[in-house]
Amino acid sequence: MMDADKALELVKSGATLLLLDVPQYTLIGIDTQVFSVGPAFKGIKMIPPGVHFVFYSSSTRDGKEFSPITGFFIDAGYSQVVVRMWDQQEERLIKVPEEEEERYRQAVRSFEFDKHLGPYDLSLYADWKRLSNYITKSTIERLEPIGGEITVTYEHGMLKNTCKSAMERVLDEQLRNSKFSSPAEKHPKRGCYYTPIPRIIKRKGIESEQLTSLNLDKTELLETLLVKDYGGSEESLLGELQFAFIAFLMGQSLEAFMQWKSLVSLLLGCTEANHSSCQSTVCKLEELNA
């Protein structure tokens, strides 16, 4: 049992997620934790500073059916208050005007909402850090979609030119026919800005044996991508891998799953990773899976 002084210190130093007017039975999640909204719920307090993934699913009035999940990443600072309000018509969380947001921030810091805020379960924080330790603010800014919201309802049509397995084609078909699906043309570029990962290497002017070798061992492709798309930073690549995995696991994003699968296939395809950068990246992938 945490003593009162320690709890007060964590409330003051931790971030707060203030969620206003969220309907009862809505599922609200942060990182690996999920809450079912009750009549008094107005958010989450004692959130450790750093990167977090917030996600939610609206419910029918009886709490028996739920919409697809919508999520977004935040990089919370010490004592920061993040404010979102429920839009009844669109059934989603939206930002509030800056002047209004500042009033809510002051109210939170004056403990006016304290009894309506659920505490972040700090015993689960270590698990979250292992999942997200390479994700930074710059990772989020580079990859997040316009508006920041990640949801499978915007993803139909984005994956039509990608190579999918039989099961992935079934999922795509279900998404196309879902009552929640929103046509991609109505929401231009609502997907994340993931790095394109070539599935097959094509190169003119080289022998067929050499081309076959390049496709069997992806070391050279990894080296090229690290320099060209990640500024030579293996941490940036691993940050994107974690971003995609979390968006898939917690946010149920099919686009995120496809990117995670592409990155894992690339890294595991480096069978002759002699260069230190590739060796280090693959070793860190193994550590993430440990």
UniProtKB/TrEMBL annotation:
CDD domains: Aar2_C, Aar2_N. Belongs to the AAR2 family. InterPro entries: AAR2, AAR2_C, AAR2_C_sf, Aar2_N, AAR2_N_sf. Pfam families: AAR2 (PF05282), AAR2_1st (PF20981). Coiled coil: none annotated. This is Protein AAR2 homolog. Residues 194-276 form the AAR2 C-terminal domain. Residues 14-145 form the AAR2 N-terminal domain. GO terms for biological process: spliceosomal tri-snRNP complex assembly.
